[in-house]
Amino acid sequence: MAKVLISPGKYLQGAGELGNIGKYTKVYGSKPLVIISEGGYKRNGEKIKASFQKEAMQAEFEFFNGECSKSEIDRLKKIVEEKSCDTVVGIGGGKIFDTAKAVAYYCKTPVVICPTIASTDAPCSALSVIYTNEGVFEEYLFLPKNPDLVLMDTDVIAKSPVRLTMAGIGDALATYFEARACLRKDADTCAGGKATEAAMALAKLCYDTLLKEGLKAKLALESGVCTKSVEKIIEANTLLSGIGFESGGLAGAHAIHNGLTVLEECHHMYHGEKVAFGTITQLVLENEDIDTLAEVIEFCIELGLPVTLKQLGVKKVTEEKIMEVAKAAAAENDTLHNMPFAITPEDVYSAIMAADSMGKYFLGE
């Protein structure tokens, strides 16, 4: 099979760029449906409306219901059709992006993605993660193309809760290790082919950037400022991880995340926080050397990312609960099977418990 690399049509990152969203969106259409949360609208709605009005565009705003589910996608599809919108714009976080991408796909319109946080690598991808209305992972919807534009306003992102950007680092942390596993397996990637050298290089650059800039960015964000380290982390969380995971492939870490969604106790944790623990679990499955495990676990601890089941919200760890997670992670249609060796639910259970023990060890518990 051919090697394939895919990416958004354009990636644009800079301070104050949300105020130019109208100028950038009018290239794709004149009547966008803007999907945004009610809180996001209160924070940035007037600025966004003014930008569209400046370009004489008739924007329709619709508040997101909170879950990227089939029912929410269907609801928004009907609005696009009823209002005769010719573009879909998703402004906010990962589930809004995934919903906007799915709606645009079904309605055959261009899609513009404008993150106000840097908490996942979802913005750049031709993929929507579909959940049930209750927040349990259901399926991946692979799309025929990536977003037409990804617009990152670093001023807005730097003002978002620090925990969200750290969760983005947790998501990006998996990129290199999952791509490496797929390469070893010679598995197909989310891009529909084998990994290119470019994708692997971006995945490795993503990991290196996180280690070099992550703590500096955290401290800067806690001081309420946007430094070069913050800018580099925003790019790593979004562009490097986005291209790296999609054109490099998903494997164990995201499958473990999907398994964890079956536990209601974990629903309050962000996607990237669960992926960070999934990365540690994948490394245990691979029997990675202790130096690399220590590097990853200590890095997570520095950034406040969860390294134990307790930190993920599991109040009482039982074999029954963790086996439920393990079975979901090892589901036939999930990416655990991109690992370069056969894995059973029992293997996953053992790896989760060992990862939990390692986390406790490095925390000094």
- Tell me the number of strands: 8
* Total DSSP helices: 13
Rough shape? Answer: globular
Q: How much helix, percentage-wise, in residues? A: 40-55%
Mean pLDDT: 96
Tell me what portion of residues adopts beta-strand conformation: 5-15%
Kindly list the characteristics that best describe this protein.
365 residues, alpha/beta, six-stranded parallel β-sheet, two-stranded antiparallel ribbon, 13 helices
Describe this structure in words.
The protein is α/β, with parallel strands linked by helices and 365 residues long. 53% of the residues lie in helices and 11% in strands. It is built from 13 helices and 8 strands. A 6-stranded parallel sheet has the order 1-8-5-4-2-3. A two-stranded antiparallel ribbon has the order 6-7.
List strands and helices in order, with pairings:
Layout: E1 11-14, H1 21-25, E2 32-36, H2 38-54, E3 60-63, H3 70-83, E4 87-92, H4 94-107, E5 111-115, E6 127-131, E7 137-142, E8 149-153, H5 154-158, H6 162-185, H7 197-222, H8 228-248, H9 252-260, H10 271-285, H11 290-303, H12 319-329, H13 345-363
Parallel strand pairs: 1-8, 2-3, 2-4, 4-5, 5-8
Antiparallel strand pairs: 6-7
Helix pairs in contact: 3-4, 6-7, 6-8, 6-10, 7-8, 9-10, 9-12, 10-11, 10-13, 11-13, 12-13
